[in-house]
Amino acid sequence: MANLTVKKQTLKPFTLDSKPIIEKYLSKLDVDLSDYTFAANFIWLANSSGFYAVINKCFCLFVMTGGELTMLLPPLGKKKYVTDAMIRCFEIMNANNSSPYYARIDYVQESMVEEFVHSTDEAESMFVMLEHYIVEKKLVDYIYSVDSLIELRGNSYHTKRTEINKFTKSYPDHIIEPLDSIKHKDEIMHLFNKWVSDRVKYMPKEEAEVFLEGIHQERHAVKQMLKNYEALSLVGLVIYINDELKGFTVGERINDDTATVIIEKTDFEVLGCAQFIFREFSKMLKDHYDVKYINVGDDMGFENLRKVKMSYRPFKLVPKYTIYQK
């Protein structure tokens, strides 16, 4: 993919070679949102065109969809540079896009929104800023105590313990092993396709239509994850029952305290499998990264996914914002 030049600003392709560059900027931030890692963006851009530039000493990540530029993250850099970088990024998006309506910055952490709005001590400038932009709260990330997910103590986790006990009694010969992207590739894609088919089968029609719109992108993301698993420094687990792969999960570290689950899929017909592999992967993430918390991302607006994630009693919910122009 070639460079893109907009308003005299060169945007470079967001490839594996970009990993050490964005990670240098991410390492200086205090964030625990699941979107703030290289892998989380790289695999989900598998079906899109990602570009980046360092603007005003900030790393700026753009995505081109249908000819329109948006940003997947706010400019990543020191606070004193972010606001000017953000304004410049809107200028670049406006110059490329068919309408200012399409320009936006997604997945902005709350502290960065505050920095953007209160970027100056002069109240007048703050009102000028608010006059031109809309800040909208979108989804939330669900973050849990890793020990709570492993121990599942108390009445609030009674159902989870019961489901796991049923699973281990029903499938005493199950086997868990670390994910091998070469060995397990075909079986993972087979399970993914079965998972899609099963989800649609039991989903309300109106919800299924929205679900299928996003599943094409998720299938590409899983392929991208498997293709670049080692280079992305991911960790994962698979579970076998009677020599058939029935679940897989993949994650990584966000910061010193928090790891994230990027993707998890299990066979719906194996009751308790999802609860079991989630607990086992929580153990793996704690052992591998020595983290206190696990972020499982947002619920993508699906009510059933919200209920499942709330049932694990989140330690906290971290909101994500989108910034638009008026």
Fold and architecture overview:
- By secondary structure, this protein is an alpha+beta fold.
- The protein has 2 domains: 4-140, 3-Layer(aba) Sandwich (Aminopeptidase), CATH 3.40.630.30; 142-317, Gcn5-related N-acetyltransferase (GNAT) (Aminopeptidase, 3-Layer(aba) Sandwich).
- 42% of the residues lie in helices and 27% in strands.
- The protein contains 11 helices and 13 strands.
- The chain has helices at 19-26, 38-44, 79-96, 110-117, 123-132, 146-151, 158-170, 185-201, 205-227, 273-289, 303-311; strands at residues 4-6, 9-13, 49-55, 58-65, 68-71, 104-109, 133-145, 175-178, 235-241, 244-253, 258-266, 293-295, 316-325.
- The strands form 2 sheets. Strands 6-13-7-12-11-10-9-8 form an 8-stranded mixed beta sheet.
- Strand 10 (244-253) and strand 11 (258-266) form a beta hairpin.
- Helix 8 (185-201) packs antiparallel against helix 9 (205-227).
- It is globular and about 65 Å long.
- The model has no long low-confidence stretch (mean pLDDT 91).
- This is Protein belonging to UCP018688.
- Residues 34-324 form the Phosphatidylglycerol lysyltransferase C-terminal domain.
- It comes from Sulfurimonas gotlandica (strain DSM 19862 / JCM 16533 / GD1).
- InterPro entries: Acyl_CoA_acyltransferase (IPR016181), LPG_synthase_C (IPR024320), UCP018688 (IPR016732).
